[in-house]
Amino acid sequence: MSTLTVDTPAGPSAAAGVVRETFALAGRRLRHLRRAPGRMVGLVMNPLVMLLAVGYLFKNAIVSPHGGAYQEYLMAGITAQVGLAGVGPTAVSVALDRRAGLMDRFRSLPISRAAVLTAHALGDLLIGLGVLVVISLVGLGIGWRVHGDPLSVLAGFGVAALFILATVWVGIALGMTVSNIESVDSIAALGLVVCTFLSDAVFSASAMPAWLRPVVEWNPVTAVADAVRHLWGNPVQPGSGFPGQHPFLVAGCWLGLLLAGAMTAALTSFRSRE
């Protein structure tokens, strides 16, 4: 394990010191990934397999809502899955750091407590954005296109990036609160499957049983995917309820709740172990 030396911030330079600490610790996370590139491959493969299997192999067997290419409907759901697929690796990484005593070592150093977990979030966010770039390029290769103006397209990627950040913090909170690594991995895998298929990421809510539609419509993955579809000008099937009529409001509320809740849980757990 590489050593980390960080000066303690003092006085008016405290904020700058926290920033330096955060980037130093985030660099450690990225260096570890470079030494184990197989983890990056694993992060890419989950949404990539879904994109190729459903969006390419079975594209002629699925009808897109409101017409248009099914790849254009699916792509927003796959960007949400990039975030979901990162929960498990993030949680396992945090749990492994706890098991190895690395978190205790960080707490013993004269550095900001918030910087430790924020750095982990920053490193995994950058990884998730890299996966998003790969998925977007593959999507373009199999027929996905955007039809909005450049600002709207960028805003769509911004919503996807915020969802990745929120799920990174969910992974950190999971890794900080669940001790057993096998349990962490199982919970994250179950969440990936449930949140994907109980949303309109792959299939429209109108194709679901009537009793299940409210669950699908209020799923945060549905809200994020629908907001991204609107911004990209891709096919969307508006629901009859409040979430379908106000996708941006619901997506914003979900992103805020996920970020606030996960960050609070993670930082509280970290500090309670001192």
TrEMBL record:
<keyword id="KW-0812">Transmembrane</keyword>
<keyword id="KW-0813">Transport</keyword>
<feature type="domain" description="ABC transmembrane type-2">
    <location>
        <begin position="38"/>
        <end position="273"/>
    </location>
</feature>
<keyword id="KW-0046">Antibiotic resistance</keyword>
<feature type="transmembrane region" description="Helical">
    <location>
        <begin position="38"/>
        <end position="58"/>
    </location>
</feature>
<feature type="transmembrane region" description="Helical">
    <location>
        <begin position="154"/>
        <end position="175"/>
    </location>
</feature>
<dbReference type="InterPro" id="IPR051784">
    <property type="entry name" value="Nod_factor_ABC_transporter"/>
</dbReference>
<dbReference type="InterPro" id="IPR047817">
    <property type="entry name" value="ABC2_TM_bact-type"/>
</dbReference>
<keyword id="KW-0472">Membrane</keyword>
<feature type="transmembrane region" description="Helical">
    <location>
        <begin position="73"/>
        <end position="96"/>
    </location>
</feature>
<protein>
    <recommendedName>
        <fullName>Transport permease protein</fullName>
    </recommendedName>
</protein>
<keyword id="KW-1133">Transmembrane helix</keyword>
<dbReference type="InterPro" id="IPR000412">
    <property type="entry name" value="ABC_2_transport"/>
</dbReference>
<dbReference type="InterPro" id="IPR013525">
    <property type="entry name" value="ABC2_TM"/>
</dbReference>
<feature type="transmembrane region" description="Helical">
    <location>
        <begin position="117"/>
        <end position="142"/>
    </location>
</feature>
<comment type="similarity">
    <text>Belongs to the ABC-2 integral membrane protein family.</text>
</comment>
<dbReference type="Pfam" id="PF01061">
    <property type="entry name" value="ABC2_membrane"/>
</dbReference>
<feature type="transmembrane region" description="Helical">
    <location>
        <begin position="187"/>
        <end position="212"/>
    </location>
</feature>
<feature type="transmembrane region" description="Helical">
    <location>
        <begin position="248"/>
        <end position="270"/>
    </location>
</feature>
<keyword id="KW-1003">Cell membrane</keyword>
